[in-house]
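As a representative case, we now present a protein record of this kind.
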Amino acid sequence: MNAEPSPPPLAALVEFVRSQQSSCADCAPGQQHAVDFVFAYQPIVDVGDGTVFAHEALVRGRDGAGAATVLAQVSAGNRFQFDQACRVEAIRQASALGIAQRLSINFLANAVREAGQCIRATLVAANMHGLAPERIMFEVQDRGDQAARVHAGAILQRYRELGFLTALDRYHSASPADALALYAPDIVKLDIALVRGIEHDPARRRTVAAIMARCDAAHAQVIAVGVESVRERDALRALGIDLMQGNLFCPPALRALGKVPVW
């Protein structure tokens, strides 16, 4: 079986996308999103070897307001500009904080017209801050009608071709049966509802075990999100999950993270 070809060097990707013509008015210089935000970063840890796998960039208001408050200001009129600004700022602020691991960025699939064109600003920012594509993971949620889901799946496919990691966020027992095949993610992030109190719930543990088997067949790693207690951590480890994210390890931080505590 032949190995997949390596993605082109980042500088070559930047030059390629810059050379492409775009007729999208949203790409015109000077377009504004008028949403003020910063990022908090939360580590995704590998409890098996004690390392940090990645940091997720979580949007926040400058006054500390949560993501819902910020996203309430996003509309059809500024969605594209906001999504683009989020990508660039997530990279810039992570660089300023000295984050050296992978960077996980959530994106709005309905803000992307054409994946190859709409990735231009991200590539330029990554090149400017020395962040290789394989150190960037893009997360998307499975939602919307079938056309929206197919569109999001096509975006992830293009991102994988460019060398990025991809993740399907908030996966749960009621997720559509075709989700893993449609998105073909490198990573699946379990919905927090499956994690909370899992040590007390045999049915939930069976559900997660079944999802693990499904993800293993699809060659996707699993991340447990929202881990808050040692008992949750231990129950998840017993199911074979080593990648975890939650306040047990480190809460989202608006400042330099320093050393993540030993767990």
Observations:
- Residues 35-245 form a domain with the TIM Barrel fold (CATH 3.20.20.450).
- The first helix runs from residue 10 to 19.
